[in-house]
Amino acid sequence: MVSSYHYQQMGKKPRPEWADAIRKRREQLGLTQEQLAEMSGGSFTQRTVSAIETGVVNPFSLRSDRLLGLLSALDWTLEDLSNIMNVDVPKKLDHRERVTPVRFLIQPVRGLASAGQPVDPEGVPVLADVWRRGSLLYRVEGDSMAPTLHDGDRVYVDPSETELREGRIYICEIPGDGHTIKRVRRLDDGQLWLVSDNPAYRPWRPSEMRIVGRVYYHDPVGGRL
C-alpha cells in the first residue's frame, strides 16, 4: 500500500480516508467493483467506482439519484456516508431515511445503434421504473451523435413509436447498412432528414429504411430523450 507520505513525495494527493472506507465496505460485502457498479444503477461503470475509491470523485458531487443508487448497493444511509466523510448531508436529501433500493431488470442488447449488424444478446441491467414493456435496448457505436450520445452508451427504444417527429431520436434500419441512430430534422427543403448531433456528419435521407422505434432514455446519463 502506498502511504500518504509516498503520495506526497510523488506529487500526488493522498487518498482520502472516506475513499478507503468505501473500498473496505465493498470488500466487506464481497463485491467486485464491477458488481458494485451494476448494483448502483445503469449509469454506473467500474471506472466510476474506481474513481470514487481512489478519491478522484467525491460521492456528494454525484447527481442525487446516482448517489442514492450507490448507497443502496453499499447498504448505507446518507447519515452513514456523511459521518464517514465528516460533512453535512445536502439539504435536498433526507439523512434520516434508509435509501430505497433501486429496481432493475435484465434485458438483452439487441444491436449496435449506429451501424453494423445486430450483436449477440447480452444481459444488462435496466431501470425498472423507466423501462417500458416491449422496449428494445441498443448500444451506441461511434461518435455521430456526440455530444448527446457517446460510444458505448445504451439507449432504451420504444418500438411502438415509429411515426417520425421533428427533433426526436430514432433507431432506423437501413437496407445494406444495418442499424443507425439519428435525430429527425425538417430541413430547408421541407423534408424530414436523419441528422447527426455531431456536425462533422452530413444529414442523410436514405431512399429506403425501417423505423425500429424512438429512443426515449439515455443510459448512463440517466436522461429522457
- Low-confidence regions: 1-12, 91-104, 115-121
Give the overall average pLDDT.
77
Number of strands: 9
Number of helices: 6
SSE class: alpha+beta
Molecular structure report:
This protein is an alpha+beta fold and 225 residues long. The protein has two domains: 4-85, 434 Repressor (Amino-terminal Domain), CATH 1.10.260; 104-224, Umud Fragment, subunit A (Ribbon), CATH 2.10.109. The protein contains six helices and nine strands; from the N terminus they run H-H-H-H-H-H-E-E-E-E-E-E-E-E-E. The chain has helices at 4-9, 17-28, 33-40, 46-53, 64-74, 78-85, and strands at 104-112, 123-127, 136-139, 154-158, 169-174, 178-186, 192-195, 210-219, 223-224. Strands 1, 2, 3, 4, 5, 6, 7, 8 and 9 form a nine-stranded mixed β-sheet that branches. Strand 8 (210-219) and strand 9 (223-224) form a beta hairpin. Helix 3 (33-40) crosses helix 4 and helix 3 crosses helix 5 (64-74). The protein is elongated. It starts with a helix and ends with a strand. Mean pLDDT is 77; it is low at 1-12, 91-104 and 115-121.
Descriptive labels:
434 Repressor (Amino-terminal Domain), disordered N terminus, 225 residues, alpha+beta, nine-stranded mixed β-sheet, 2 domains
Short description:
With 225 residues, the protein is α+β, with helices and mostly antiparallel strands.
